[in-house]
């Protein structure tokens, strides 16, 4: 690891310290461990919006430095293979989809949805097809998102994608996914969305007001449950659409339900966040915000259900999207700051932040031990 001479927080003087943050095993405190931890692959992870992958196309998705080719067959079904051709190791995402096959751009080797090589168009030497199959990943589609299970395939049936009954069935609530890639570690994103001490950052949009009081927090298994007393949805524009007389917007419940995060305000205003850890400084975020109903501004009338989806699209563009952009700028700046000052003494006023980090670190440590026991290389 490269070194440089610079002052340390411990002694205020000049000493030789690593120029970059330590890895998980070398970390000296909880924050350093959390910022180096990956995520347990034995869960379902959202990797893309369905609408962004048209039939007959292939895209690259990355789970913790592992490249995966996600392709959609001509019939609309989704499949996922490790992103390499067995021949010369080119990324298969450089190729194309033909019917239900993924075709390498170099020599035209073709792979079916089970990862088997089913044709090598350039073979003129009378040799039989190589008996090989690339690693495949279980895929599901739910809530407008494509989900992968990057861990042990036999566990995919035991683990479930979170059930969100409000987004299913004929009476489902309107919801439009909002996604973006953030240049920050996944633990910073989780810290941000559940730590209400940063109301100052959002003073323009006021999703919650300053002075939020943490009324409860506890770790239950792999989940961190917490509650705040705070005034929710009081923005100059957003507040006009929330029926504060009917809905109790002074209290919010949240949970880091590893590896997911959600919030609930009076069973009327809810959201889920699904993070896709790409590497130590890159995270893809998939937000689902959904409301049971919204009111017509200045009138005691609810917006009709048929119009809610259009309202949600507009809301994502002019309210929720800009709000999350503020969070994105903040956590990306935090990432840069951490990389420069990773040895600074950790200071946290909100106890839930350490609770999140404890769960993140413990789950990663458990996965590393499990992988070592099974003789597998950790991803």
User: Based on DSSP secondary structure assignment, what is the total number of beta strands?
Assistant: 19
CATH architect. name of the largest domain: Alpha-Beta Complex
Q: What spatial form do the alpha-carbon principal axes imply?
A: globular
Kindly report the CATH topology of the largest domain: Naphthalene 1,2-dioxygenase Alpha Subunit, Chain A, domain 1
End-to-end C-alpha gap: 21 Å
CATH superfamily of the largest domain: Naphthalene 1,2-dioxygenase Alpha Subunit, Chain A, domain 1
Task: Report the CATH C-level class of the largest domain.
Answer: Alpha Beta
Roughly what percent helix? Answer: 10-25%
Number of helices: 4
Strand content: 25-35%
Structural class: alpha+beta
Q: Give the biggest sheet.
A: 7 strands, antiparallel
Average of per-residue pLDDT values: 89
| Strand line-up across the major sheet | 13-19-18-17-16-15-14
How many structural domains can be distinguished in the coordinates? 2
Order of helices and strands: EEHEEEEEEEEEEEHEEEEEEHH
């Amino acid at each position: 690891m490269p070194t440089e001479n610079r002052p340390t927080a411990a002694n205020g003087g000049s000493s030789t310290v690593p120029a970059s943050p330590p890895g998980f095993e070398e970390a000296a405190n909880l924050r350093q461990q959390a910022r180096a931890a990956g995520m347990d692959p034995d869960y379902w992870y959202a990797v893309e919006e369905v609408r962004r992958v048209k039939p007959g196309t292939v895209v690259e998705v990355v789970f913790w430095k592992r490249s995966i080719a996600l392709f959609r067959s001509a019939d609309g079904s989704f499949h996922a293979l490790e992103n390499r051709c067995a021949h010369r190791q080119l990324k298969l995402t450089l190729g194309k989809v033909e019917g239900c096959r993924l075709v390498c751009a170099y020599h035209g080797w073709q792979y079916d949805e089970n990862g088997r090589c089913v044709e090598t168009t350039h073979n003129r030497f009378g040799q039989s097809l190589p008996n090989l199959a690339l690693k495949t990943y279980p895929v599901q589609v739910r809530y407008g998102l494509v989900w992968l299970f990057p861990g042990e395939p036999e566990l995919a049936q035991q683990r479930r994608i979170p059930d969100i009954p409000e987004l299913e069935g004929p009476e489902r609530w309107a919801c439009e996914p909002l996604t973006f890639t953030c240049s920050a570690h996944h633990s910073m994103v989780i810290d941000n969305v559940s730590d209400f001490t940063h109301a100052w950052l959002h003073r323009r949009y006021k999703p919650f007001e300053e002075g939020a009081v943490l009324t409860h927090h506890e770790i239950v298994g792999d989940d961190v449950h917490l509650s705040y007393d705070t005034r929710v949805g009081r923005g100059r524009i957003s507040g006009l659409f929330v029926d504060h007389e009917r809905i109790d917007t002074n209290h919010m419940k949240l949970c880091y339900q590893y590896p997911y995060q959600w919030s609930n305000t009076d069973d009327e205003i809810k959201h889920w966040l699904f993070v896709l850890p790409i590497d130590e400084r890159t995270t893809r975020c998939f937000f689902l915000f959904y409301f049971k109903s919204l009111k017509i501004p200045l009138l005691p009338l609810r917006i009709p259900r048929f119009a809610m989806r259009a309202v949600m699209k507009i809301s994502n563009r002019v309210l929720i999207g800009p709000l999350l952009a503020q969070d994105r700028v903040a956590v990306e700046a935090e990432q840069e700051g951490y990389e420069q000052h990773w040895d600074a003494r950790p200071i946290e006023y909100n106890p839930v932040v350490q609770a999140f980090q404890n769960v993140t670190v413990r789950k990663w440590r458990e996965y590393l031990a499990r992988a070592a026991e099974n003789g597998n290389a950790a991803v």
